[in-house]
Amino acid sequence: MGELSNINSIEQYRKKKKRKKRIIKIVIAAILIILAAVGIFVINSISKVNSYEDKDSSKFPVNVADLSVLDLNTIDSNIIVTTNSELCYYTARAKKITSFKHGCTNPVSVKAGQKILTYDLGGYTIRLDNKSGNSRLDPIKTDEKILMCKMNDSNYIAVVTEESRYKGSVTVFDKKLNKLYVWHSAQEYIMSVDFIDNNDIIVATQNVENGDFLTSIYKIDINKQSETLICQIPGSMALDISVKSSDNIMYAGDNTLNCIDKKGKVLNEYALNSSIDFICNSQKDYTVIALSDIADAQIDDILVFDEYGRLYKETSYGEKIVDIYCDNDGIIVVGENNISAFNYELESLNSYENTNGYNKAQRCNDNILVMGNEFLQLMD
Asked: Is the pLDDT score of 209 beyond 50?
């Protein structure tokens, strides 16, 4: 009886042990199934997130209707939109990087090198930001109202301001916004400025002599803190001045385009028979002008001049131009009805309909980037 009881106990123990093993196997299998399901879910979730990110980063056109946009710039693959209150940064796939207040009432933004300069036209604020918006210097304040600014590729800045005791002044800052030199103009209004290098600038001033305009062009040596009168151009109101790669100076007036060497000798002079609508000097070897057609004011002609002031190419655009952008890859023209890309031979490369009132253009990578009051669009 005792042996039978022991045998039954052993058998029951074995059954319990087998049942326990089966339960453990079932639990492990269930756990593996759950883990597999979780893994599939995670993978699908990641895939969905990536697909959403892809969608979010490719959403041209960007709706900017609520932003009160003013200026458009690109640096490498980054897009910088200046609004009436902020600088907004986007990738080349339209994904917003960042935005922040610029602190200007009437902001104007210009790019050079790897930085973007924003200043308050008629105000006192200047700020310098990098291409990604994640590294910026503290803004500085001028003592007098800002009339214009020019920045070179080394991020040196020339700031033209009003003056109570003078007709105007130019203050030069280095790339860290340290003040280097102030040049005052006692008798002449300052109309335009450009850099020769980090040590020298060119200034075009305006006065009236014997009842007619007189433009004077000065070279300012920042280190020596001295000025040299290079030349004077009578009978012309200064609009723009630019130093080309040959160190020649391209002067654009209301009725003439003159190329002057650094000693003041006029190399070429081209008489303008109608009003200038746009001047593009951002490319160092060419000057591009949009000129109202003499026979039809509703049409603009495009004129390209080389670095010696010689007329290189010209064509009629066939409509009114609202913006021109120039770089080493060519010319982008925004017309009232069309958007066009040209090389400097004025051969057409691309053309698109301007269906959304675009009025500003830049180049982003190899594509045309345009902006109007409602949309920011990449034309590809």
From this structure: yes
- Number of helices (H) and strands (E) in the chain: give both, helices first: 1, 32
Name the 3-class secondary structure at 102. coil
Coil vs helix vs strand at 20? helix
| Contact (Cβ atoms closer than 8 angstroms) between residue 45 and residue 31 | no
For the chain, what percentages of helix, strand and coil (3-state, to nearest 5) are there? Answer: 15, 50, 35
DSSP for 329-359 reads: TEEEEEESSEEEEE-TT--EEEEEE--S---
Rounded to the nearest angstrom, the gap between the alpha carbon of residue 80 and the centroid of all alpha carbons in its chain is 6
Report yes or no: 315 and 301 within 8 Å, Cβ to Cβ: yes
Structure tokens at 280: 């593009």
DSSP code at position 121? B
* Residue the block writes with tokens 């675009």: 358
Cβ proximity of 182 and 169 under 8 Å: yes
Residue 21's contacts (CB-CB under 8 Å, 6 or more residues apart) are none
Residues 137 and 129: their CA atoms lie apart, in Å, by 7
Q: How far apart are CA 39 and CA 51, in angstroms?
A: 18
Out of 47-51, 195-199, 258-262, 371-375, pick the least confident: 47-51
Mean pLDDT, rounded, of the chain = 88
Residue 316 C-beta-side C-alpha neighbours within 13 Å? 9
Distance CA 236, CA 215 (A): 7
Measure CA 69 to chain center: 13
The pLDDT confidence band at residue 260, using thresholds 50, 70 and 90, is: very high
- Specify the DSSP element, H or E, that contains 33: helix 2-56
Q: What angle do CA 356, 360, 362 make, to 5 degrees?
A: 115
269: amino acid identity, one letter: E
Cis-peptide, bond into residue 107, ω within 30° of zero? no
**Encoded tokens for 122:** 């008629």
Tokens of 95: 């994904």
